[in-house]
Specification:
This protein is an alpha/beta fold and about 375 residues long. The chain is built from twelve helices and eight strands. β6 (about 275-285), α9 (about 295-305) and β7 form a beta-alpha-beta unit. The protein is globular, with a radius of gyration of 19 Å. The structure holds 2-acetamido-2-deoxy-beta-D-glucopyranose (8 copies). Belongs to the glycosyl hydrolase 5 (cellulase A) family.
């Protein structure tokens, strides 16, 4: 989630033992995003912490910080133990069982860069994230044949000035060669993780999320203006380097590209049609618009029609949620969740809800609290999918 809610103030070791390069069509056990349809959720608040997702956790450990960077600074030596406990408990195999029971086939898993590399200058914690990731992903793949999207949600220096991009106010990823190089080291590690998983065909690699260099006042965040053309050129340089890296190790692994809030149409011309690429678009409805629970499906449909590209590349909706700006209504949640799922399936390759678990108790306009609108497991408990 892009997390404006309440925070305006605020290596080289990835050579494959497995794959001689193959055209992506030559190995049918890999996913072809042009034909695959995913029914997904995000595992938010697990390997990346956000203030809004779990109020109890945040209140207990953050010391009032806006972001994970500050939370770790506040916890000092306790940051490691607190986060290791979080990794062991927030998402467990029981969650995967529950998600599978509701027909979930895709898990999009946000990670910080610190899961992959340990930068001495960073407050973000480098610990056993990948061990937990391995355990949960193996289980989801082997038990339910789920597909895993590994999302490196933050990158060194900060990709959007928000809590989730590294830290609040950090935009130093842009135009910074040192951070660019670190980011590619992160990607080497992710590729290595996938290649040594025993099931590389079950993964998609997503190397960035919601890059934005024009949101100092936050007004344009969530819109195409959040990323300037100059910023987009830097993002493009990075994505091309990632695609080349992945292709040189295993071209069957799809790269998922979250091109900020610009439409896929903006980027499509930058890649040859043969690129093993899928776009990820994010759609939220709780600000910048006159949305309500009553009219939400119209907004979703308009987004689906406008922002699904030209057909040159497949598009997957990697984040969305049903909170509206005004007049949220508990009774319309089921209709809106099902409408959204249906629309994203029809106009794109499916979607991943934000997020699997959410206990945040901030109130919303209309009825209820955020947790009533953002928690997929609640929707499962309420029987929306049975
Ligand atoms: C397809 O990929 C799987 C997983 O990497 C591998 O086990 C299998 O040998 C590959 N098949 C071909 C025909 O390359
Ligand atoms: C939200 O939850 C936190 C942590 O449990 C609690 O301290 C706070 O009072 C709650 N806020 C509301 C508005 O209920
Ligand atoms: C990471 O996991 C290993 C193996 O389970 C364990 O020995 C180690 O203490 C863990 N590290 C931390 C920082 O918890
Ligand atoms: C790159 O960013 C880092 C912080 O992430 C900063 O310390 C360094 O000075 C920056 N380099 C340049 C050339 O701006
Ligand atoms: C980044 O990596 C490139 C290629 O490996 C290297 O030529 C360049 O010096 C590096 N730049 C920095 C600032 O580390
Ligand atoms: C940055 O956002 C502002 C709105 O706050 C917009 O007017 C401007 O055109 C954007 N700048 C660029 C370079 O896209
Ligand atoms: C929200 O409800 C109020 C009161 O019924 C109504 O005046 C307003 O137009 C509604 N807003 C939207 C965006 O539907
Ligand atoms: C989605 O497709 C199904 C099956 O074709 C159809 O019944 C449904 O009306 C479509 N929904 C939307 C919103 O396009």
């Amino acid at each position: 989630m892009y997390n404006l809610l309440g925070y305006l103030a605020a290596l080289g070791c990835a050579q494959s033992a497995l794959a001689a390069p193959l055209a992506s069509s030559s190995n049918s056990s890999y996913i072809d995003w042009r034909t695959f349809k995913g029914n997904g959720v995000n595992l938010g608040g697990w390997l990346v912490q956000e203030s809004t997702i779990d109020s109890y956790f945040w209140d207990k450990y953050s010391g009032g910080a806006s972001d994970e960077w500050g939370l770790c600074e506040h916890l000092g030596a306790q940051c490691g133990p607190v986060l290791e406990h979080r990794y062991a408990t927030w998402i467990t195999k029981a969650d995967i069982d529950k998600l599978a029971s509701a027909g979930i086939t895709v898990l999009r898993i946000p990670t910080t860069y610190a899961a992959w590399i340990d930068l001495p200058s960073s407050q973000l914690y480098s610990g056993n994230q990948t061990a937990y990731l391995r355990e949960i992903a193996d289980y989801a793949i082997n038990t339910y044949n789920m597909h895993i999207v590994i999302d490196t949600h933050s990158l060194p220096g900060g990709v959007n000035g928000l809590t989730i991009g590294e830290a609040t106010g950090h935009w130093y990823w842009f135009y910074n060669e040192t951070n660019f190089n670190y980011s590619l080291q992160v990607i080497d590690q992710v590729i290595n993780f996938i290649q040594t998983s025993g099931s590389p065909q079950s993964y998609t690699l997503e190397p960035i999320s919601e890059p934005a260099d024009n949101n100092t006042n936050m007004v344009v965040f969530g819109t195409p203006l959040a990323l300037t053309d100059h910023g987009a050129a830097w993002v493009l340089k990075y994505i091309r380097a990632v695609i080349q890296k992945v292709a040189s190790v295993n071209p069957n692994i799809p790269v998922m590209f979250q091109g900020s809030f610009k439409y896929p149409q903006y980027w499509e011309g930058d890649f040859p049609a043969s690129t093993n690429l899928v776009f990820d678009t994010h759609h939220y409805y709780y600000e910048h618009m006159e949305s309500s629970s009553a009219n939400l499906p119209e907004y979703i449909l308009a987004d689906a029609r406008e922002k699904s590209g030209t057909g040159k590349f497949p598009v997957f909706v990697g984040e969305w949620a049903i909170q509206s700006t005004y007049n949220n209504t508990l009774a319309l949640r089921k209709r809106n969740v099902l409408a959204g799922l249906d629309i994203w399936q029809n106009y794109s390759q499916g979607s991943a809800y934000w997020t699997a678990k959410f206990t945040g108790n901030t109130s919303v306009d209309g009825q209820g609290e955020q947790k009533d609108y953002w928690c997929y497991e609640t929707f499962i408990d309420e029987g929306y999918f049975s």
